[in-house]
Specification:
Blueprint: E1 3-4, H1 17-30, E2 43-46, H2 51-68, E3 74-79, E4 90-91, E5 96-99, E6 102-105, H3 108-116, E7 121-122, H4 137-143, E8 148-153, H5 159-172, E9 178-183, E10 188-189, H6 202-221, H7 225-235, H8 241-253, E11 260-266, H9 267-275, E12 282-289
Parallel strand pairs: 1-5, 2-9, 3-8, 3-9, 4-7
Antiparallel strand pairs: 2-12, 4-8, 5-6, 10-12, 11-12
Length: 290
């Protein structure tokens, strides 16, 4: 049985079991959940930077799911395609993933059902150096003990929309509680990222968050998956547009007509709050549930 080993443990998040648990608890305490949440949650969008920067927002999404659903059988995690250059979504279809908290099993039955729909291929190698899914798995292990996962790397192509719709159809026919997670960061702004359409400085970073990120977030909240792909291509405001669009397409197929924004921030704001410093480079983050 193949087991994927962690590649960013000890860098993006704590590398040992006890320290990982402690860091998750810190993330869960960073942002309070709003009083109003959807009665049922079928999908969420989470960021995937190092936990110091975005772990609190990712924790919000999983905490919101936990509030509504004590047990989840499987999380389908759509990840960004940072190092995978194929057009077709790639499924890690068998075996397990290891983190500092132990191993979590792949939902092989669900994998075969998704693959049978024809919008994805089985390709474990596509996951070998991709971090956007890995950083979500310890939250699942701690909050939903026994849950399985189905990791899928999703490029920002039209296949993401077909995949999301197919996944929604598979879930509708399943007797399992399955939740979809789309993993993306938002605008990578600043000279370090080679993206400075509004210049450099605090006002430019604010534009990236309040204007550029907001365009993508608003499309997600309106459940407009196709628009999300087009907007990200035009405005460079999501590194995992395919992953987020797949989650939104799945949510729509499951009857959702709107999302709820739990919180939004960026790495510049986090640096100011936690470290007392600022930067001309910044990355946006959002936590959304459907």
């Amino acid at each position: 049985m193949q087991t994927r080993r962690p590649i960013v443990a000890g860098r993006f998040y704590a590398g040992t079991g006890d320290s990982c648990t402690a860091e998750i608890n810190q993330c869960l305490e960073e942002y309070p959940l709003p009083a109003s949440l959807p009665e049922t949650i079928v999908a969420g969008i989470v960021p995937h930077a190092g936990w110091t920067f975005s772990g609190g927002l990712a924790a919000m999404v999983f905490s919101a799911i936990k509030r509504r659903h004590r047990q989840v059988d499987t999380f389908i995690i759509f990840g960004a395609a940072h190092t995978y250059y194929g057009r077709t979504p790639a499924v890690y279809s068998s075996g397990s993933w290891r983190t500092p908290l132990g191993e979590v099993v792949i939902d092989e039955e669900l994998a075969q059902q998704v693959l049978a729909e024809g919008a994805a291929v089985s390709d474990s190698e596509a996951h070998s150096s991709e971090h956007s899914i890995e950083v979500q798995v310890p939250f699942i292990q701690q909050l939903f003990g026994g849950a399985k996962i189905l990791p899928i790397v999703v490029p920002p192509t039209d296949e993401a929309l077909a995949l999301g719709g197919n996944v929604g159809s598979v879930i509708r026919q399943s007797d399992k509680k399955v939740v979809c997670i789309g993993s993306t960061d938002l605008t990578h702004y600043g000279p370090g990222y080679g993206f400075t359409p509004m210049g450099v400085g605090a006002e430019a970073v604010q534009w990236a968050s309040k204007v550029n990120d907001k365009k993508f977030i608003d499309l997600a909240l309106a459940v407009k998956a196709e628009g999300m792909l087009a907007d990200a291509a035009e405005n460079c405001n999501a590194c995992g547009a395919g992953a987020a669009a797949a989650a939104v397409a799945a949510a729509k197929a499951l009857g959702k007509t709107e999302g709820v924004l739990l919180a939004q921030t960026n790495s510049s704001e986090v640096m100011a709050q936690k470290m007392g410093t600022t930067s001309s480079d910044s990355v946006g983050y959002a936590a959304i549930v459907f």
